[in-house]
Design a protein that fits this description.
Order of helices and strands of chain B: HHHHEEHHHHHHHHEHHEHEHEHEEH
Oligomer: heterodimer
Shape of chain A: flat
Strand content of chain A: under 5%
Radius of gyration of chain A: 21 Å
Distance between the termini of chain A: 72 Å
Number of strands of chain B: 8
Strand content of chain B: 5-15%
Helix content of chain A: 55-70%
Largest sheet of chain B: 6 strands, parallel
Strand order of the largest sheet of chain B: 5-4-3-6-7-8
Radius of gyration of chain B: 25 Å
Structural class of chain B: alpha/beta
Order of helices and strands of chain A: HHHH
Distance between the termini of chain B: 68 Å
Largest sheet of chain A: none
Helix content of chain B: 55-70%
Number of helices of chain A: 4
Chain lengths: ~100, ~475
């Protein structure tokens, strides 16, 4: 009997939880805020679903409910992607090491 | 592009996201990590464009939506102040949640586009996956909106509790689970909408009883939810990038919630059930007034100038007063006088994990002068002055001595062990936990009653 593809996805899911567990524990506590903003940004990869939702749109037919919802979702996810990565970048730029006092 | 090729690219994108989080293990590698994250996102989006026919007329619409959302996001990211980070993150969480709901809805209404079956005849497993994704997404959405309102001050931070609250939550919870099961039998629009509406409702009910200072846990928890919602949608769309990301974000948020709860020595359920800090404050009020020593900026400046080491303990009050820049100036003047300055950050200082560190970094405090609790606690005993600015409960020795106290057992910063303590605070009012801070009445404590920023600025004047 063939294995249901669902089981493969479940395996990826479970293993990723473990990867996440170990990777996140190694994040230094001083970077926990950037961690939150970057996880926010990457979870917006949900945009791929929204792009698919719009994909059946053609010039002959007007927007259906599904397309409309998809377009809104794209815009929302885009706010998060741009906003999330940029604000993370802004924060990370601020983390600086102690300057050599003599250079001042 | 063939489905197999697309799936391989999605896997790569998932790996890039793992590397993005991995980079955050130290500030040096973090910026590179963020670049990996951006690459992963670009890859996922480009692959999706190539996979769904790029020349279809939907492309222009998609680009428009992307540009609109992208510009809004860019403007927000560039303008937001670092003090407002907690509400920004809460706001972003709500968008992920809502996006998950919308994607689930559009998959429900046109399953053909997603290859999940036909209308009213969607595969059972896909139905369950999208229902779970939509439900968690909806909870994330309304929960984050409430958290945002509380953090932004548009809604009182005080816990809202009423009789039978937990019972109602339980009923709605059972209702949601029943609806998810029922929808596999009857694929009606009404059931799906009912499911989403009940999830919206429970999202609100879950967050209103949680008080302002428990927000670090709430934000981390919602972070986790947004991940699980994304994973649910990932299963529906059979998309590896989404499944991996959802799992990463879900476990990340869960770990942060755990760290925050541990920082307060409270169980997760204790925080979630809410209402903390109400009952205890009344108990404390009838205590007799004890003498307090208070001083001014001149005294504080004199004391610190003559010290050989100073540890600064920042808390939420510093963030509210925006005192971080003044604080850095104070530290600079002290360093010029040969005083060794370091910062001690408690895990739950501020309104989100790592909040203090970002604010100090913003004020150009080098990150290697900022220490976590476990790394600096033993240094207090050999320190001349502890300068507590805007923190309270996390310094209260009662947590170690009085088993009756609600904060008993909470790991605190051993501020009381330093030779003298300077406490910048507006008044003697107790902190969030409603517990009087014993430290105020100690002989070696000098209270500086003022706004944190004004006081720090005056100290700087007196130092120069």
């Amino acid at each position: 009997m063939e294995i249901d593809p669902f089981i493969f996805r479940l395996s990826i899911f479970v293993l990723s939880i473990f990867v996440g567990y170990y990777v996140v524990w190694s994040v230094t506590p001083s970077l926990h805020t950037p961690l939150m903003s970057v996880t926010n940004a990457i979870s917006s990869v949900i945009i791929v679903g929204a792009i698919v939702a719009v994909s059946d749109l053609s010039s002959e037919v007007s927007l259906n409910l599904s397309n409309t919802l998809g377009l809104i979702a794209i815009a929302l996810a885009a706010i998060n992607i741009f906003g999330g990565f940029l604000v993370t970048q802004r924060m990370l730029q601020m983390y600086k090491k102690r300057k050599k006092e003599k250079l001042k | 592009m063939t489905p197999n090729l697309a799936a391989s690219f999605y896997l790569i994108s998932g790996v890039l996201f793992i590397l993005a989080l991995r980079g955050l293990s130290s500030p040096e590698t973090s910026r590179q990590g963020n670049v990996f994250g951006i690459l992963g996102m670009v890859l996922a989006i480009v692959v999706t464009f190539l996979f769904v026919d790029i020349l279809s007329s939907s492309f222009i619409f998609t680009i428009c939506a992307l540009v609109i959302g992208g510009s809004i996001g860019t403007i927000i990211a560039l303008r937001i102040s670092m003090t407002a980070m907690p509400q920004l993150v809460a706001g972003f969480h709500s968008l992920v949640g809502l996006a998950a709901v919308l994607v689930a809805l559009s998959a429900f209404y046109s399953p053909e586009t997603f290859e999940l079956g036909t209308l009213n005849n969607i595969k059972k497993i896909s139905l369950i996956e999208m229902s779970i994704g939509a439900s968690i997404g909806a909870i994330t959405f309304t929960g984050s909106v409430i958290a945002f309102l509380k953090l932004q001050g548009l809604m009182s931070g005080a816990p809202i509790t009423f009789k039978g609250q937990h019972f109602i939550n339980l009923l709605i919870g059972i209702g949601i689970i029943s609806l998810i099961i029922y929808i596999t039998i009857n694929q009606s629009n009404y059931i799906f909408w009912l499911l989403i509406i009940s999830s919206f409702l429970i999202g609100i009910c879950l967050i209103i009883p949680i008080g302002g200072a428990d927000m670090p846990v709430v934000i981390s928890m919602l972070n986790s939810y947004s991940g699980w919602a994304a994973a649910g949608i990932g299963f529906t769309l059979e998309n590896t990038a989404l499944i991996i990301t959802g799992a990463l974000v879900g476990s990340s948020g869960a770990i942060l919630s755990y760290i925050m709860c541990k920082g307060m020595n409270r169980s997760f359920f204790n925080v979630i059930l809410g209402g903390f800090g109400e009952t205890y404050s009344t108990l404390q009020k009838n205590k007799d007034k004890k003498p307090v020593k208070s001083g001014n900026a001149e005294d504080a400046a004199f004391l610190m100038k003559n010290a050989s080491s100073v540890i600064i303990v920042p808390g939420y009050g510093m963030a509210v007063a925006q005192a971080q820049h003044a604080l850095r100036e104070m530290a600079d003047s002290l360093k010029k006088n040969g005083v060794k300055v370091s910062y001690a950050v408690h895990p739950v200082a501020g309104r989100m994990p790592g909040h203090m560190n970002v604010l100090l970094a913003e004020a150009n405090v080098p990150y290697d002068e900022v220490f976590e609790q476990e790394n600096i606690n033993s240094d207090f005993a050999s320190t001349d002055v502890a300068f507590v600015i805007g923190a309270n409960d996390v310094t209260n020795p009662v947590a170690k001595t009085d088993p009756q106290s609600p904060i008993y057992g909470m790991p605190i910063l051993d501020v009381e062990k330093s030779k003298s303590v300077l406490f910048v605070k507006r008044s003697l009012s107790p902190g969030y936990a409603g517990v009087d801070n014993e430290l105020f009445y100690r002989d070696n404590t000098l209270m500086l009653f003022a706004d944190a920023k004004k006081m720090t600025e005056e100290i700087v004047k007196n130092l120069n």
